[in-house]
Design goal:
Radius of gyration of chain B: 68 Å
Shape of chain B: rod-shaped
Distance between the termini of chain B: 103 Å
Helix content of chain B: 40-55%
CATH superfamily of the largest domain in chain A: Periplasmic binding protein-like II
Oligomer: heterodimer
CATH architecture of the largest domain in chain A: 3-Layer(aba) Sandwich
Structural class of chain A: alpha/beta
Structural class of chain B: alpha+beta
Radius of gyration of chain A: 21 Å
Strand content of chain B: 15-25%
Strand content of chain A: 5-15%
Shape of chain A: globular
Number of helices of chain B: 18
CATH class of the largest domain in chain A: Alpha Beta
Chain lengths: 316, 789
Amino acid sequence: MKKHKVYLFLFIAMVATSHTLSAQDETIVFTPQWTAQAQFAGYYVAEAKGFYREAGVKVRIEHPSATQPAISRLSQNQCQATTLQLCQALEIVDGGIPLVNILQTSMNNAMVIVSARGKDPLMQKGAKVGIWSVGFGQLAICMSIKDHLDYEWIRFAQNVNLFVAGALDATLAMSYNEYYQLVQAGIQMTDKNVYRFCDHGYNVQEDGVYMTRDYYVQHKEQARRFAQASRKGWEWAAQHPDETLDIVMQYVDKNHIATNRVMQRLMLKEVLRLQVDRESKKREFRLRPDMVRQASRLMVENQMLSREITYEELSN
Amino acid sequence: MKKIIAYFRHKLSVRVSLWVVFFAAIIFNVALGFLFYQAREAVRQEAVSRATQILDKTSLRVEGILNRVEVASNMTKWLVLRHSEQADSMFVYSRGLLLNNPDFYNCSIAFEPYYFKDKGRYFSAYTKHDGDSIRTIQGGSDSYQYFFADWYLMPQLLEKPCWTEPYMDLDVATNTSEMVTSYCQTLTDNQGQLIGVINISLSLNWLSQTISAVKPYPNSYSIMIGRGGTYFVHPDTTKITRQTIFTHTLEQPDTALTALGYAMQHGEEGMKHMNIGSKDSYVFYKPLGQTGCSMAIVCPESDIFSGFDRLRRTIMTIVTVGLLLMLYLFIRIITRELKPLHRLAKEAEAIASGKFDAPLPDFQRVDEIGQLSHSFGNMQQSLVKYIEELKNTTSQKASIERDLRIASAIQMGMLPEKFPTRDDRDDVQLFASLTPAKEVGGDLFDFYFRDEKLFFCIGDVSGKGVPASLFMAVTRSTFRTVSAHESMPDRIVTIMNKTIADMNKNHMFVTLFVGVLDLPTGRLRYCNAGHDAPLLVGAGVGELPCDSNIPVGFMPTWKYSLQEAHIFTGTTIFLFTDGLTEAMDAESALFQMERVNDVATQALSQQQQEPRQLIARMTEAVHQFVGDAEQSDDLTMMAIQYIKQQSDVRMRKSLVLSCDLQEVPRLNDFVEEVCQTVGFEELVTMQVKVAVEEAVVNVMKYAYPPGQHGDVTIEAASNDVRLKFTIIDSGKPFDPTVQAEVDTTLSANQRNIGGLGIHIMRQNMDSINYERMDNLNVLTLRKKIILNS
């Protein structure tokens, strides 16, 4: 009996070890939700500087393609981790795919509305406003309803051409990306024609790294190490912005992205700024329960969610 | 540097050449500057015209194709709307369009979701060239939701057909992409409802190649940007689709580039001059049809003006070399032309060194240098002649100067040289000085004593030099002659005036002051003939009042007036000529009477009014005032100080006799008594008795006309020094002192009648003095008291 027990223990230990080993050997495919750019600098740094390797985790960064956006890759298990905005994550969880936030990078909201020169977005009731066809615009829709602006949302694929061509009255933009694209296209920004959501009670966190809960439950240690190494990558990026930019440009060139160093420098600076919490003035790398609650309730109120998603549902 | 300047100063040929070349260079520069400016402007205009033509040509080519696209799109739209319910027809139309237009890139006839119920959410008849064949498929899917594409949205939002911003068209089937721009227009049903969009794309490759090939200058290049400023054509391929025209300005503001970007974005056409990539360049830009794109040709200024710059450099080199050659030739030519001047200069040096007969070169030229040589020869001859004349004149002048020195010595010799001082006399001391402006002068002064009177005069002859000195000599000798027989100054001057005026052929004149000072009494009689009034320096300083008489020599009949004054003991009479008051300093300011008064006042306050001291102070003051200025006029000063001290009267007696010779014994008794009283010895008493008797008898005999009774008063007075007899009568005026004395060396028969009496008086008494006062003849006889020891 004793011997049997010993065998049972050895089996369990073997199984457990083999499981652990197999789990450790597994590569985490990480898909950022957009093409290669400084928005994901921390992960590039972690990969390029070997932080993932040092943490004992195998990570491969694969960007989404036109035919396969990040969320579909995650749901089809083509990737194990992806970045999502908090509102997107809430929608996905509400849609029946439980997600776990393993690392929250954004501490502030970056979304803005830019309207044609000299016009105040808040004064343009019923205006045609561009919005990303792949999501991201949840807070803007809430704001449009709440402030009775009744914007006509025009869903576009991925650029600012419609607005620049004069086909739109205004467009949504991220302060680190489309905002600078517009500036680069010769659009003049003033205090009047730019509406920043973070300054009007919609300061809801954005980018975070998510895994499906199923995967997470089975790979908690890997997820933790991945998150730790990614955080280390971001902290290094904050301390070495010029070298980080070099790394970013390597990824940009490898993926043939139509951007330039100036844009990526501006984007990196803005993304790093958004990672500093307004109240603590620190890079906290945590999901704030109050922001989860605020976003969830706003979306429920506007029928974007069928129920309130709690902080606990997202946390690990 | 100093050596270079010295070289230029010594080289006329170099200086003249440099000036000529300098002005030539200025003219060349101005002319060429204007020419270059005009030429450059012409080249610039040519460049503008050339670039504009190229732009127009390119634009026309592009618009030609764009128009075909638009026409094809319109025709297809017409077909689609006629058969809008037949989904499969759309493939035929789409394919047909590309078949008919092989240079189009692709074509989509896309419909709204579920427009064809049986086709589901997506229906887009998509045709594309696939190598040599044409592929037609249904293009929409979950992974390509065309509803969100620019080409599908833009015509709806703008509500008109339009060209999209160039974009990368990804062909999923072949996984290839191509930069395209699309013409798209909406399809609407009869109710105006949107049913879909027709999209025809053109590859930008041919456009890029067409635009890139535009190269009017070797280093010029073309760019093309879209509505958002994105580069679609650029020589730096890394910028294409990645950067906009504004990207660079985000970090380094560049207002010129920004302005160009805005102008091109707004579809403007034009030209800008700006700095691109540290090169000055001209940028010509023009929109490309309705695509929203704009192309620009960047032409570096160095390219545009390279031919012009080459020409300019060549011309400038030729001009510079030409000017240097010109400078060289000018220096050579001018040096050669001026060579005779060097010879002339050497000969002139020889003449200057004293060789007046040095031969001059004969240039045989008729130009200015020939004339100069000729003039030089004339000058040489004139110089020799002039030098000869100068020698004669110099020797004549030396002779005249010698004569003048002798004349000066003679003139000075005329003037009294010995001046009585306190040591010599107890009644008056005197000093005078005369400084002529030239060797000889026209000022004069003189003085002498006769009986107990000081006769003196001071004068200033009109003019200067030899004529004035001769006139002065005449005046002075006339004074001596006349005053020997006249004691009254007015008479002396009147006679002198008549004498001088009669022989004055040259209308000269002399201002004259004549004074006679009675030494025992201090009475001054004087006559001023137009001379400066003397100063009296005694209790104070003041002018002696003078009547307005004309100078001597003008009118022989003028009657000069007599004036009198009493001079107190210690008072100095200061006489001077106008050379004192009109002494001039370097600024032609005059010494003036005020300063004379000031000096006299100072001298008085310092008890220095004695003649020598006063004149010394006055001379010093004048020298100080005049400084280094040349003396303008003769300067003469004379100072006479009356120093007679009156002694106490010890005895005083008088006797009045009628003019009767019978009274002579009484006279003798009276005289004897007086002499005894003062203690004269017998011989002296006898001398006094003889002299007084002679004087009184003379009065008794001649003073009154025969038959007229008259008295004669004899007063005797003595002090510790002298005994004085004063004989007073009221008879006719008679001055025995001016009578010529008898020549006692002659025998009695040879002597003239008269004159013996005065002789006796002078021999026996120490002094005789006559005064006419209050219509009385007053004769004073004095004898020093020498008591027996």
